[in-house]
Amino acid sequence: MFRGILIEKDEQGYRAALKEIDESLLPEGDVIVDVLYSTLNYKDGLAITGKGPVVRQFPMVPGIDLVGVVSHSDTDKFVVGDRVLLNGFGVGEVHCGGLAQMARLKSDWLIPLPKAFSPRQAMAIGTAGYTAMLCVMALEKNGVAPDKGDILVTGANGGVGSLAVAILAKLGYQVVASTGRAEEAAYLHKLGAKEVIDRQSLSEPGRPLAKERWAGAVDSVGSHTLANICASTKYGGTVAACGLAQGMDLPATVMPFILRGVTLAGVDSVMRPLADRETAWLRLADIIDPELFNDIATEMTLEGVIQGANDLMAGHIRGRIVVKVS
């Protein structure tokens, strides 16, 4: 038996609770990991509160991230005692995840914990930081260099947004942060944003083609916000889209793409190949300043996860939530 958050759905309804869980509940895998730290992401918040159709099998342990120590291995890829890291691959959705003291996983999903990070630091970055890095890599791939102009980051107070601001600023980009929480402007400036704007200027229906402003953007919001970003991106610019906090629709036209050569680069972090994951984490090890972890992450235990998920969905959480599991 081990402790963890368990989501159940039956005739009694949909519910999540901290429980003692039997090991027999865990799905198949060739590696067992004693979880040290996990995280609380937007997707975890949707799963725990039931506000989004994230979980597709029940019962389910949520938690799309984890760092832990291998306690049993049926593969030569890892041995007992190895520290490993996991992001995505459907964990917390169709395969029991990281918000429990034990996880049985497929070795193909795991990478070694980068030596540059402690387990807690790796989870302060988590899927949010790894996704932000993939977005920055997409901008770089398409030639969006620091000298091209302003880079917009939406949802800047969230996990992906906060880390995108910090990463881009460290790489020398001029970052404009969009947020609905003006009181957090000092936090965003400390992360490296040169300017903070109100998200309202982007979130309403706009023109199909607007004045050129952004050399590139990292968007975790979607819907009208993403449409307005594309409409105001400079000729040859790139928008990296990785989220749908405002909505999954895209009420846009083709005009920015065929008249300005704008690229809309979709960034998936869930099923990304291991090689891309390892590259992203190596880049993060080179870029992230250890002092950032004090500003960007707060810590809680499993006992605080249910309330934390509700606070996250209500927009009361800034930056990253690290969950100390064991």
Task: Characterize the structure shown.
The chain has 326 residues and is of the alpha/beta class. It folds into 2 domains: 2-113 and 293-324, Medium-chain alcohol dehydrogenases, catalytic domain (Quinone Oxidoreductase, Chain A, domain 1); 127-266, NAD(P)-binding Rossmann-like Domain (Rossmann fold), CATH 3.40.50. 29% of the residues lie in helices and 28% in strands. The chain contains 10 helices and 15 strands. The strands form 3 sheets. Strands 3, 4, 5, 6, 7, 14 and 15 form a 7-stranded mixed β-sheet that branches. Strands 10-9-8-11-12-13 form a 6-stranded parallel β-sheet, with helices on both faces. The radius of gyration is 20 Å and the shape is globular. The mean pLDDT is 95.
Key features of this structure:
326 residues, Quinone Oxidoreductase, Chain A, domain 1, Rossmann fold, 2 domains, 6-stranded parallel beta sheet, 10 helices, GroES-like_sf, ER
